[in-house]
Specification:
The complex is a heterodimer of chains A (332) and B (382). Chain A has 15 helices and two strands. With 332 residues, chain A is mainly α. In chain A, strands 1-2 form a two-stranded antiparallel ribbon. In chain A, β1 and β2 form a beta hairpin. Chain A is globular, with a radius of gyration of 24 Å. Chain B has 382 residues and is α+β, with helices and mostly antiparallel strands. Chain B is 22% helix and 34% strand. Chain B contains eight helices and 20 strands. In chain B, α2 packs across α3. The chains are: A mainly alpha (332), B alpha+beta (382). At the A-B interface, α10 and α11 of A face β6 and α2 of B.
């Protein structure tokens, strides 16, 4: 579950799998085949098939493998899990589903605590991103037209450096002997270094810093295309500028807020690198639990169950987000 | 093309009454954007319950003037008074003025009802009163059944009426309308024009309308101010503007006109004779002109005031020329004839189609006489 691959794949699944599923449900196999052949023959087919092929090969298949492992028994073997299908008495092919892994998730408080903590950290990170990102996006959208391109580039600029490198840079800033503490000590503002590394605070800093552009970009997109005469109309009808912002601009930017919030919240939920590098024992996030199960404990079935449970959680949130966005986008 | 308004008994032509106090006073207002002068020393008085039209082409400064009245722009120089109150430094949300925007600017996330109620809510009026006034206003614009709809569920004409209702519900001292009918199709415009006039009559609000459409201005306005290059070039009733334009620009901008360049050859207090090579004849006008003798000037004659006949008129010495029919445009209610005079000048003549089918109609390439009445020509010195 690498961080780079996660976000776009999750998004694409939600967008592109929907029509596919609908089509599969509504059409008989024969018609489906004919339809498919027809599409391929028209030449539009192969073009559309490429992303489907990509998704099936690199998302659906690995997903199904993980799903399969989550129902297996843990073995000390190579691979470290049992097969689901087994011949018994040479006549019966039996499918053995081990749901104990999922039950275990509910029994051991470690897991649901990690889920809860992940949701908490992801939620508040997204909220902080919104509070910081909204004024920035607003200023960008209202800036001189010739300046907007430059500002937009500045927002995207951090992506030119490796994500890992930028998180490591924060270690250098937040350490007890890091830049911030050194400056404060030199100024005489503190006489002992403030402990920032390996705390929730550092994790929040890391996540907010890394995901802020994902909040700003959709907000900017909605604010930029807003019709400014609406604000003039509001003022003309006796509305003060700040109230006009609350009653007109804010509700109209709701689709951007929802999009930005999800773009931060969902990947932050499964974040591993930031809590691993900046967080301490108190930051028990599900991404880290997953890593430990896979690599330290070699408990692949449990780890897979953790992954599937998290994916279900994300899907649930995405369905909710989709519903929210539809409602918010209704008047457009 | 002209639907003159029936004169109102109370406020009949207050601009002619020197004792009348103007309701909106625009004094020497100038607006510059950088080096560009959008509005250049405009002075204008508008009286209570008038429906005043600012008419001009794009970029003539009419919209800027409107935005200064609404408070979206501050004049670079000069002042604006509304009902005796100086508007300098007063922000839009505190002016007794409402505006209907060209794009309507309806709030897309609010229902029709909430859009109309928005202004009243800003004034913290009691809920009951807001509901009643919104309902009354929606009745007036015939939108009561659509109160719960969102703007995107309405047609263009309905949106226009929501915008009108929203700007009228606060009963502003002055209503500004920016191209109110611009986005409507022709049929709808015509009916909406009369609706707008009815509503204005009913509520007695003073309207200032900005438009580039002269027909719209003609139908709606009590008075029209024609703007060009940031200045008001003529103010008058639709009839005055059409029949007595004071300059070539106004004559040409409003309606169609035939212009003949010429020179005064004979004049007195009650007549003037102008020799025009373009017309190929002497033009006689039955009133005096304030111009020096021998002055170069221009006579404007409207196409509907020219007659076209195959036989020579009684007096062929003046106001009369011969030519060949160069083209005919059949418009239904009238026909437009392009006549190429012997001088080479093309003249437009319109004739109402009174008979459904006439034998022996005037047709292409026929040689005809065009002639007009001594009262028809307008002398333009500028």
């Amino acid at each position: 579950m690498s961080r780079q691959g996660y976000l776009p794949l999750g998004d694409q699944l939600a967008v592109s799998a929907e029509p596919l599923v609908r089509r599969l449900a509504g059409i008989t196999p024969v018609r489906l085949l004919l339809n498919l052949l027809g599409r391929i023959a028209t030449g539009r087919g192969p073009v559309i098939a490429v992303p489907y092929f990509w998704l099936i090969l690199f998302f659906m298949v690995p997903f199904l493998i993980v799903l399969k492992i989550s129902f297996a028994d843990q073995l000390i073997a190579q691979p470290p899990y049992s097969s689901l299908l087994e011949w018994t008495g040479e006549r019966y092919l039996t499918l053995k589903l081990n749901v104990a892994n999922y039950l275990f998730l509910g029994q051991d408080p470690l897991y649901w605590k990690a889920y809860l903590r992940s949701v908490e950290i992801a939620f508040f990170s997204a909220l902080i991103c919104l509070v910081i990102g909204y004024p920035m996006a607003y200023a960008m959208a209202r800036a001189d037209r010739s300046l907007r391109g430059l500002l937009l580039m500045l927002v995207v600029l951090p992506f030119w450096t490796s994500f890992l490198l930028r998180v490591y840079a924060w270690i250098g800033l937040l350490n007890n002997t890091g830049v911030i503490n050194n400056v404060l000590l030199a100024l005489g503002l503190i006489d002992r270094p403030i402990v920032m590394m390996r705390t929730n605070f550092a994790v929040y800093i890391g996540i907010v810093y890394s995901y802020l552009p994902f909040m700003i970009l959709p907000l900017y997109a909605t604010l930029e295309k807003m019709d400014l005469t609406l604000l003039e109309a509001a003022e003309d009808l006796g509305c003060r500028p700040f109230k006009a912002f609350l009653t007109i601009t804010l509700p109209l930017s709701l689709p951007g807020i929802i999009a930005g919030f999800s773009l931060v919240f969902i990947p932050a939920l499964g974040e591993f690198v930031i809590p691993d590098l900046l967080g301490g024992t108190e930051t028990l996030m599900i991404g880290k639990v997953l890593w430990d199960e896979f690599f330290s404990n070699r408990a692949w079935p449990i780890a897979s169950a953790v992954a599937i449970a998290m994916l279900s959680l994300v899907l649930l949130i995405m369905v909710f987000q989709h519903w929210l966005q539809r409602r918010a986008a209704e008047p457009a | 093309m002209q639907e003159s308004r029936k004169p109102e008994p109370t406020a009949a032509e207050p601009w002619k009454d020197p004792a009348a106090v103007p309701y909106i006073r625009i004094q020497d207002v100038t607006k510059k954007f950088g080096d560009f002068i959008a509005v250049n020393r405009v002075s204008l008085n508008v009286y209570k319950q008038e429906l005043f039209c600012l008419l001009g082409g794009s970029g003539c400064g009419k919209s800027t003037l409107l935005r200064m009245l609404a408070g979206f722009e501050e004049p670079t120089a000069g002042s604006i008074f509304i009902d005796g109150q100086d508007m300098a430094g007063i922000p839009p949300y505190r002016r007794p003025v409402n505006m209907m925007f060209q794009s309507y600017a309806l709030f897309p996330h609010m229902t029709v009802q909430d859009n109309v109620a928005f202004g009243l809510k800003q004034d913290h009026k009691p809920k009951r009163e807001i509901l009643d006034r919104v309902a009354a206003m929606l009745d007036l614009v015939k939108l009561a059944p659509f109160a719960k709809r969102k703007p995107h569920q309405l047609s263009g004409g309905q949106r226009q009426r929501v915008a009108l209702a929203r700007s009228l519900v606060k009963e502003p001292k002055l209503l500004l309308l920016d191209e109110p009918l611009g986005a409507l199709d022709r049929k709808l415009r015509e009916s909406t024009q009369f609706e707008l006039m009815n509503i204005q009559d009913k509520l007695g609000v003073t309207f200032i309308v900005v438009t580039h459409d002269q027909e719209e201005a003609m139908t709606l306005a009590t008075r029209i101010g024609v703007m060009n290059l940031g200045q008001i070039v003529q103010v008058g009733t639709p009839k005055e503007i059409y029949e007595f334009p004071i300059s070539r620009f106004v004559a040409d901008f409003i309606g169609t006109v035939n212009m003949f360049e010429g020179r005064i050859v004979d004049e007195d207090n009650d007549y003037v004779r102008i020799a025009s090579e373009e017309a190929g004849c002497t033009i006689f006008i039955n009133h005096g002109v304030a111009a020096p003798p021998n002055a170069q000037l221009c006579v404007a004659v409207r196409p509907e005031k020219i007659s076209i006949t195959r036989e020579a008129p009684a007096n062929t010495a003046e106001n009369c020329a011969q030519g060949i029919i160069d083209g005919i445009a059949y418009m239904g209610d009238l026909s437009v004839f392009n006549v190429k005079l012997d001088s080479g000048k093309l003249v437009k003549v319109t004739q109402p189609n009174l008979i459904r089918h006439a034998e022996d109609e005037i047709t292409w390439d026929q040689r005809v006489w065009v002639h007009w009445d001594p009262a028809s020509g307008v002398v333009l010195t500028t």
